[in-house]
Amino acid sequence: MYEVEIKASIGDTSFRQLLNSAADLGFAYCMTVRETDVYYNGVDRDFMKTDEALRVRTCSRWQEGNPKDSESTLTNVPENSSQDISKESFITYKGPKLDDSSSTRIEHEIRVNDPDEARQLLSSLGYIPVFTVDKTRREFNLPAGSGRPFPITLCVDCVTGLSAHMELETLAPSEDAKDDALRHLFSILDAMNIPRENLTRKSYLELLIAAQTAGK
Fold it and tell me: Which of 2, 39, 40, 127 is the catalytic position?
């Protein structure tokens, strides 16, 4: 299975405009997620050079009501610990990008019970923690249909240290199906009036490192 994904800066589009466009296309709010990712570099190779990624992610998920009908903004995220859906942790490996127009990669992920033990395991194997990414994400879902074999997820992201971004994600069962999945994602991006020049293939880790380097 391939995770097919495109990412774009929201630019001048307001949070309210983005939510209205998503609702018009049939997206429904699912949950709000707060994620902390600790990224590691390779023992025998530099993951920045090979375009790979290895991380330990901890996340809390909850529902804030429909953000479209509330006073929440990109940076003002109401949180109610009594409504937590779940708290989970994962080790994730992502391979190099598979094409020149998206962030599609092969991904392997396992759930772990103790993120501290997972981080210590990787460090004991020689992997070096190099960067931490903190992100708050609102997830919206568009069910399969109208030629789409899999649901599409819209993620509206606020990453500490970056401007607001959005991601569109879906699945493709094979490499042959990947191009059709990408066409669906690009058509949704266009319908939401997000310019294609806002697209980026860089991960949030790469964008943060670039911003940090530019600020020196």
Answer: 39
What three-state secondary structure class fits 131? Answer: strand
40 labelled catalytic = no
pTM of the full structure: 0.83
The pair phi, psi for residue 95, each rounded to 5°, is -80, 180
Instruction: Name the burial class of residue 108, with classes exposed (0-12), middle (13-18) and buried (19+) by CB atoms within 10 angstroms of its CB.
Output: exposed
pLDDT tens digits in sequence order for the chain, 216 residues long: 788 999 999 988 888 899 999 999 999 999 999 999 999 999 899 999 999 999 999 999 888 766 666 555 555 565 554 456 788 999 999 999 888 888 888 889 999 999 999 999 999 999 999 999 999 999 999 998 877 788 999 999 999 999 999 999 998 888 888 889 999 999 999 999 999 999 999 999 999 999 888 865
| Paired tokens of 142 | 């568009």
3-state secondary structure of 169: strand
Radius of gyration, alpha carbons of the chain: 17
Residues 6+ apart with CB under 8 A from 14: none
